[in-house]
Amino acid sequence: MDVTERAVLEVYRYLPDQESEPRLQNYEITYRDDWVVLDALNHIKAEIDPTLSFRWSCRMGVCGSCGMMVNGEPKLTCETFVRDYTTETITIEPLAHFPVVRDLVINMEDFMEKLPTVSPWLIPDEDKPLEEGEYLQTPAQVAQYQQFSMCINCMLCYSACPVYGLDSAFTGPAALALAERYNLDSRDNGSKERANVVTAHEGIWECTYVGECTEVCPKGVDPAGAIQMLKLSSARDWAMSPLSLVMPRGGRS
Amino acid sequence: MTPEINRPLPRSWWLRKPAYFKFMIREMTSVAVLAYSLLIIWALWAAADAQSFSTFYDFLRSPLSIGLHAVVFGLAFYHTITWIALTPKVMVEWRGDERVDPDLIAWNIWLVFVLVTVIVLVLVLA
Amino acid sequence: METFQHDVLIIGGGGAGLRAAIAVARDHPDFSVGVISKVYPMRSHTVSAEGGAAAVISPTDSLDDHAYDTISGSDWLADQDAVEVLVEHAPEELFQLEHWGCPWSREPDGHISVRPFGGMKLERTWYAADKTGFHLLHTLFQTSLKYDAITRYDEWFVTSLIVADDRCQGVTAIEIRTGEIHAIGAKSVVLCTGGAGRVYPFTTNGSIKTGDGMALAYRAGVALKDMEFVQYHPTGLPGTGILITEAARGEGGVMVNREGRRYLQDYDLGHPLDLGDPNHPQKRTMELGPRDRLSQAFIKEREAGRTFEGPDGDYVHLDIRHLGEATIDRKIPMVRELAVRYVGIDPVEEPIPVRTVVHYMMGGIDTDTNAVTSLPGLFAAGECACVSVNGANRLGSNSLTEILVFGARAAVAAVDHAGQVPPPANQLLENSARADEQQLLETLLRPNGGDETVSGIRTTLQETLEEGAGIFRDQTTLERTCSTIAELKARYQKLTLADTSRTFNTDLVAALELGAMLDVGEAIAHSALARTESRGSHQRTDHPERDDERFLFHSLAFRGEGDPTIGYKEVTITRWPPGERVYGRD
Question: What is the ipTM score, two decimals?
Answer without folding.
Answer: 0.95
